[in-house]
Amino acid sequence: MSERKINAMVTGVGMYVPEKILDNKYFESLVETNDLWIRTRTGISERRILEKGATSDLATRAALDLFEKHNVSPNEIDVIIVATVTPDMFFPATACLVQERIGANNAWGFDLSAACSGFLFAFQTGCNLVETGRYKKVLVIGADKMSSITDYTDRNTCILFGDAGAAVLIEPTEDKSLGLQNSILRIDGKGKEALYMLGGGSLNPASHETVDKKMHYIFQDGKAVFKVAVKGMADVSVELMEKSKLKSEDIAYLVPHQANLRIIDATAERMGIRKDQVMININKYGNTTAATIPLCLTEYYRDGKIKKGDNLILSAFGAGYTWGASHLVWAI
Length: 332
Ligand code: UT7
Description:
Blueprint: E1 7-16, E2 21-23, H1 24-28, H2 35-42, E3 46-48, H3 55-70, E4 79-83, H4 94-102, E5 108-112, H5 118-131, E6 138-145, H6 155-158, E7 163-173, E8 179-187, E9 195-196, H7 208-212, E10 219-220, H8 222-243, E11 253-256, H9 261-271, H10 282-285, H11 292-302, E12 311-318, E13 322-329
Parallel strand pairs: 4-5, 4-6, 11-12
Antiparallel strand pairs: 1-7, 2-3, 6-7, 8-13, 9-10, 12-13
Helix pairs in contact: 3-4, 8-9
The chain binds oxa(dethia)-CoA.
């Protein structure tokens, strides 16, 4: 295989979280649960809910935030990739809706569906486009309005999810020490038994029956997913450390998908890294599916906690199953 001439690096970040906060106490009035159970079993204290609007609103605001903070003009964007499992509608793609709203008049783009690994897969795709030399500015957005597919009478799932959007800009660099270095990405369709939304697709088109049977909501066998998620995320992160020849002390941060603090802690332990080497914001936002990783990147960058040259391991596990890890050297 010929050596790559161009690396893909992150040159901007942006985010949007809705104002409305639902704390754990609120759920005590909805289902049989309590604040202590939620905090100790998941690490979540509160989550944000978008009251009006859809995923394209979350994605658009995240993109505009990035443009403003990094002085980017929408006409410079070549490609828009939106990772989401809660598109505004089946078609047109959310990427098209975002394109119009932000005024990216020279862009093409598409949606990508990989649930909680959606950002990781979209990020890899965006980097690959940049590495070809054909595209100079690729906008990758992770956005989900999880509240639109959450059953607020199901205590197993309703406490877990929140709404958010976050984005990164990817650009080329000839400095091979910066940007995406290595990735390991995987899918396994056996996951369809444990985490899914059955209704609304071509298998079970929307009908009175699908609504009555609550088939338009997330179903999760939490315990089954927990087991494979712990193993999958830890294994792939450790394998990537070996592939990239990184020791635990070389890593500035693990940037994990925020589904459960116990999954994150187990992954960090297997990687041999300290708690302060792990990005965490699950306490504030819950599981925002495709948005968790870019949300972490944006917050930690803006707090001055990441610097140029830092080794980051992005790692996720989600429905499908989908999972993987990427070694990114921070470039700004
Ligand atoms: O992001 C995509 C991938 N998804 C994940 O990574 C999520 C993976 N799974 C998890 O994070 C965890 O399995 C959950 C947080 C969903 C559940 O935690 P758990 O420790 O695995 O609990 P469990 O499902 O084993 O349930 C233990 C008990 C059960 O009661 P019994 O059967 O022991 O009497 C549940 O009914 O806790 C009960 N329970 C609750 N209790 C209070 C389940 N949900 C709640 C709740 N409040 N909200």
